Amino acid sequence: MENSVQTVSDVIGVYSLNIAIAILIFVVGKWLAKKITDIVAKILRRNPKLDETLVNFFDDIIYYVLLVVVVLTALEQVGVESTSFLAIIGAAGLAVGLALKDSLSNFASGVMIIFFKPFRIGDYVTAGGVSGTITEVHLFNTEFTTPDNQRVLVPNGAITAGSITNVNAHPKRRVDLVIGVGYGDNLKIVKDIITKIVQSNEKVLKEEAITVAVSELGDSSVNFVVRAWVNTPDFWAVKWALIEEIKNTFDKEGISIPFPQRDVHIINEKN
Q1: 167 contacts 118 by C-beta, under 8 angstroms
Q2: Cβ–Cβ contacts within 10 Å for residue 68, how many?
Q3: By C-alpha distance, which of 260, 237, 257 is closest to 246?
Q4: For residue 136, which of 149, 157, 151, 150 has the smallest C-alpha distance?
Q5: CA atoms of 81 and 26, how far apart (whole Å)
Q6: Distance (Å, whole) CA 100 – CA 32
Q7: Rg of the chain over CA atoms, in angstroms?
Q8: What is the 3-state secondary structure (H, E, C) of the chain?
Q9: Within its chain, how far is the Cα of 207 from the centroid?
Q10: Rounded Cα distance, 103 and 100, in Å
Q11: Sheet harboring 165-166: ordered strands across?
């Protein structure tokens, strides 16, 4: 009886030691995986040809691969053979794949985003129903920061499934305005005023063509189309400044900016 008790005690002692070692392997291994990943990321960032998005992608891949190795090593310490563990995973792979088909789709989309580069970190993008600045691209989702400073995570699958508008893709953008004036106003004077305003804006690119032309005879106004090229970061500042300057100048010069109106004629019928 005493021998049996001693045997059980020895077994418990051995397993307790193995479990303790397995936990230690997991904790230390996870820490090392993070450190190794950070070192690799620093080395990759020294290469100016590698985009930050690609570095972050490799960072995630390396970390999770090392973490799997750590988990397998810890499991072997408590008596679970890695070959058996991998066989179980392989047998359950189909079921897991079906259950996580959306996640796998997001992962595949993340790979497409990384290698085809429709945008980079720092670009202002409209995709997946969200508009904002790209701050991070992860394996399964992309992080946006909206103009009002909200953090939005969009699944990568939703991004690649639709159209992507990258505002910062090119260094120049064209400002397009439609300015309506009254039918009684002198069109030549109006055209000269708008042209002078656009040309006097210091952020408008003078080497690019400026367009000021009558585009439409509307229901209640004669519409001018105004087009000017600017550096992409200056787009909104120039657009808002031109609109304000045109309105103020028109007020000073007595040029009308008509609003939609309709004449109603009431006919009284006498019996």
Answers
A1: no
A2: 12
A3: 257
A4: 151
A5: 16
A6: 29
A7: 33
A8: CHHHHHHHHHHHHHHHHHHHHHHHHHHHHHHHHHHHHHHHHHHHHCCCCCCHHHHHHHHHHHHHHHHHHHHHHHHHHCCCCHHHHHHHHHHCHHHHHHHCHHHHHHHHHHHHHHHHCCCCCCCEEEECCEEEEEEEECCCEEEEECCCCCEEEEEHHHHHCCCCEECCCCCEEEEEEEEEECCCCCHHHHHHHHHHHHHHCCCECCCCCCEEEEEEECCCCEEEEEEEEEEHHHHHHHHHHHHHHHHHHHHHHCCCCCCCCCCCCCCCCCC
A9: 32
A10: 5
A11: 151-155, 141-145, 130-137, 124-127, 165-166
Q: Is the pTM of this model over 0.70?
A: no
Q: What is the pLDDT of residues 54-95, one digit of tens each?
A: 677 777 777 878 887 877 777 777 666 656 555 555 555 544
Q: What is the pLDDT of residues 8-55, one digit of tens each?
A: 455 455 567 777 787 888 888 888 888 888 887 787 777 666 666 667
Phi-psi region of 152 (alpha: psi -120 to 50; beta: other; left: phi over 0): beta
Give the residue from 193, 202, 249 showing the smallest Cα distance to 224: 193
Q: Look up tokens 């004036």; give the residue.
A: 181
What are the φ and ψ backbone dihedral angles of 267, each rounded to 5 degrees? -105, 120
The separation between the first and the last C-alpha atoms of the chain, rounded to the nearest angstrom, is 123
